[in-house]
Write a structure and sequence with these properties.
Order of helices and strands of chain A: HHHHHH
Shape of chain B: rod-shaped
Number of helices of chain B: 15
Radius of gyration of chain A: 19 Å
Strand content of chain B: 15-25%
Largest sheet of chain A: none
Largest interface: A-B, 23 and 21 residues
Oligomer: heterodimer
Helix content of chain B: 40-55%
Largest sheet of chain B: 5 strands, antiparallel
Helix content of chain A: over 70%
Number of strands of chain A: 0
Chain lengths: 222, 599
């Protein structure tokens, strides 16, 4: 294999490693939230370092490829896409760690009625990430478009949850602190869903070369 | 393969050209060597003849000269000219120092102008040996001449050298004549051999052509073909060899392909998913079960395990097994899309092609069964213990306290009877469940209409709707009015589902029965607008005693209803599952089950 292809392959493997780490982090976060399992949540927080390290490695590999091999066309888009994706993945890892942190705090408080909706948000954002990852590694543009469509559901859930929590806070002022934490968690899941959408957009950029933002705007979204 | 191509490149001349060239080389050697030898001999002979004749003439001339005495230079010149005119020879008299005294071709006055002949070959030889000759091109007459010289004593000149030059022309023209003929002959025979070889080779290739194309066909995989005609007896061994080769290839291929088919059938028959990695760790083949299990990708070839199964650990293990000499197999457990797999990685002895084989054994059901069994004992004893505890408590209070027995005895007894009823209901459920499990043959399915069963079940549920405002609707498509089922058991299913829906719907409940046609199955769904079932619990709600965590303490139930439903539906050949939340909403729930459609 020529050196260039070897390097590209190495980059692909590195980004897949990062993808898997992030996916696991999010999966653990959702599970920890669902069971209010503070041990599992702590695991996510501890593991975030690994994702950060991987981001640096991916970045270095991309820089080397760009500087030494001057890739063109699809290879260039792949390298650029990986750079972009690594940022999104790292961010997802951070958000997962933050949610896990908040989960540790919430596990000490009695559960509240809107946890189910937030859990559903978490599961949906996890589904989106998984779908986006499969879309990326296949690569499959149709799946990527699907991810963009799913983002809409999470957005709607987020606003519904927000309304519920505000009502709850109006009724019970002593539980404002856990409520604010819960709002944060909901927002972070929503952000993760957005970043999964970004990954799907990156996939479309790599495969089709179309500009990033235009590919995920649907008329039915309004 | 590469060597073969290189060889082909080296010998890129065709047999035709090679044959023609070698024939020509042989021909040229055969013609040139004898002619060269022949010419040399003839030349020698002619030279000898000429020299002899010149020498004879010279002798005659010398004899003539020796008759007179004391010639003057003038007289000598006259004598030389006379002889020269007769014999057509050029005669020169040179003294011992090489100075020309008389020359028959040059007037006497001009002989002084001639150069010194002391260095001429024939002169030198004559001075030494008495005679000498040489053949040279004469510039004076512009042709080849033979110069013959002899040393004689001539008074009053002392020792002189007489030289006679006569044209060598006879030889030159002979050569020219003979060589033209030779060249023509050579050219003719070259062309003739060329044509001969050309036609010979063409004939040979024409005869070989069927053999070549047959061999090519065999090479392309048409192993049934055999060569029947031989271009010549010399080729018989080749024909036999090719036929034999084709035969053994055909046999081998048959054996290999039947073995392959056997193996493929076995591999595809295996429930476990198998994948083979090549020596760089990429997926190169897999069995049908693999394809059916991992449906998230439509293209696996060339992918690495990490990309497909999203497990860093699996990737590491695969790499270890492929690259290490000592580690031949490893196993680990991975989770993928909510299912557990026990993965065994085995590496073959010879890793030139296959680097490792991955065997995926789905242990999700085993895991689930384990936890179900564990839970059953715990749950059953717990569910039976709760009412028993309360019965025991109230009975003890009544027995110990006469005051309460007299005043509140009736209330307590009502509580006791309620708990006893609960227990009876629970035991009924357990009994029903075990009956369905142990005697599935009691469920005899036949063609029945759906709507009467549904309506009857709904009416039985009337006492459950205490003070809720529940609207019930039936939306059955015409295509699924009739199904194969057992009406009594199907009624149980609907009753259980309706009870659940009524329990969980809010104040203004909506319960709807819908159905869809899917192939030869009818999917029947009971929809409600309750809070829905959390996704991670959707598979577990069909387990015995499993109750959704959120409602465990608020809504009453045995946790057996859906387990009974599942058993009944499975015995009728269908499947049961949950859809929650409803698409486009964040709540609601449909319990779907499938039944065979009655035609």
């Amino acid at each position: 294999m020529p050196q260039f292809l070897e390097e590209l392959d190495r980059l692909n493997m590195k980004i897949m490693q990062m993808v898997v780490q992030t996916e696991q982090a999010l999966s653990k976060t959702v599970n920890a939230f669902s069971r209010m399992d503070s041990d599992l949540a702590q695991e996510v927080v501890d593991n975030d370092k690994k994702i950060n390290e991987l981001e640096v490695q991916v970045y270095e590999l991309c820089m080397r490829l760009l500087a030494l091999e001057q890739p063109v066309a699809r290879d260039l888009r792949f390298v650029l896409g990986c750079m972009r994706m690594s940022v999104d993945l790292e961010r997802i890892g951070d958000e997962s760690a933050n949610i896990a942190d908040a989960t540790i705090y919430l596990s000490l408080n009695p559960p509240m009625e809107f946890y189910d909706k937030i859990l559903l948000m978490g599961q949906k954002s996890y589904d989106m990430l998984q779908e986006a990852i499969i879309a990326f590694s296949t690569p499959d543009v149709d799946k990527a478009v699907n991810v963009c469509r799913m983002d809409f559901e999470v957005d709607e859930l987020n606003s519904a949850v927000l309304k519920d929590i505000i009502q709850h806070m109006g009724r019970e002022s002593q539980s404002i602190e856990p409520c604010v934490q819960t709002i944060n968690i909901a927002r972070r899941f929503e952000r993760i869903a957005d970043m999964a959408t970004n990954i799907a957009e990156t996939t479309m950029f790599i495969v089709k070369g179309v500009s990033l933002k235009s590919s995920c705007q649907f008329d039915d979204r309004v | 393969m590469a060597d073969y191509k290189d060889n082909k490149m080296k010998h890129r001349y065709s047999l035709k050209i090679k044959l023609i060239i070698s024939f020509w080389v042989v021909l040229i050697i055969a013609l040139v060597v004898p002619s060269y030898y022949f010419m040399n001999t003839v030349e020698e002979e002619i030279k000898k003849e000429t020299v002899q004749s010149v020498s004879d003439r010279m002798s005659v001339f010398i004899w003539g000269l020796s008759r007179g005495e004391n010639y003057s230079l003038f007289e000598l010149d006259a004598a030389v000219r006379t002889v020269s005119e007769r014999s057509q020879d050029r005669i020169t008299v040179i003294d011992a120092q090489g100075v020309v005294l008389v020359d028959s071709m040059v007037p006497l006055e001009e002989t002084d102008l001639l150069e010194n002949h002391g260095s001429r070959q024939e002169f030198v030889n004559a001075m030494q040996d008495g005679t000498g000759y040489s053949i040279r091109h004469s510039r004076t007459v512009d042709r080849h001449l033979i110069y013959y010289a002899r040393k004689v004593e001539l008074e009053p000149f002392g020792t002189v050298v007489l030289r006679m030059a006569t044209p060598y022309a006879t030889m030159d023209s002979f050569f020219r004549r003979v060589s033209t003929g030779l060249w023509q002959m050579m050219l003719l025979s070259l062309v003739f051999t060329g044509l001969l070889v050309f036609f010979l080779v063409r004939r040979l290739t024409q005869k070989l052509q069927p053999m070549i194309s047959l061999a090519q066909a065999i090479g392309r995989g048409d192993y049934q073909k055999r060569i029947t005609v031989s271009p010549g007896r010399e080729f018989d061994p080749l024909v036999d060899a090719i036929n034999e080769m084709a035969g053994s290839i055909e046999n081998n291929i048959e054996v290999v392909s039947s073995q392959k088919m056997e193996l493929e059938t076995i591999l595809n028959g295996i429930k476990d998913s198998l994948a083979a990695l090549d020596n760089t760790g990429r997926i190169m083949s897999f069995n049908r079960s693999f394809e059916d299990t991992f449906t998230h990708y439509n293209y696996f070839f060339g992918k690495r395990p990490l990309e497909v199964f999203h497990s860093n650990e699996l990737q590491e293990y695969c790499e270890e097994v492929i690259s290490s000499d000592s580690v031949r197999n490893r196993s680990l457990e991975i989770t993928f899309k909510d299912r557990y797999y026990d993965v065994n990685i085995v590496s073959p002895e010879d890793r030139r092609r296959i680097g490792a084989i991955l065997v995926f054994h789905d242990i999700t059901d085993i895991r689930r069964l384990e936890s179900v069994r564990k839970d059953f004992v715990a749950n059953a004893s717990h569910e039976l213990r709760t009412p028993l505890t309360s019965i025991k408590g109230y009975t003890e209070t009544l027995l110990e306290n006469k005051d309460i027995l007299e005043n509140k005895g009736r209330d307590f007894l009502e509580i006791i009877i309620k708990n006893t009823n609960n227990m009876i209901r629970l035991l009924d459920d357990i009994l029903q469940l075990s009956k369905i499990e142990s005697e599935p043959e009691k469920i005899v399915i036949r063609k029945i209409a759906l709507s009467p069963v549904i309506e009857k079940s709904w009416n039985n549920c009337g006492h459950y709707i205490h003070n809720k405002n529940v609207t019930f609707s039936l939306e059955l498509a015409d295509s699924c009015l009739e199904v194969y089922g057992e009406p009594e058991y199907l009624g149980h299913v609907f009753q259980n589902l309706f009870e659940n829906s009524i329990k969980f719907t809010p104040e203004h409940g909506q319960i709807k029965v819908l159905c869809q046609l899917k192939g030869d199955m009818v999917n029947v769904g009971v929809m409600d607008n309750g809070p829905g079932i959390p996704r991670d619990e959707q598979k577990r709600v069909f387990e015995r005693f499993y109750r959704v965590k959120k409602f465990k303490n608020t809504v009453k139930g045995t946790g057996l209803g859906l387990a009974i439903c599942r058993n009944i539906i499975r015995n009728m050949g269908g499947e049961i599952w949950v859809e929650s939340p409803l698409s486009g909403k964040n709540d609601g729930c449909i319990i779907w089950f499938s039944l065979h459609r009655a035609l």
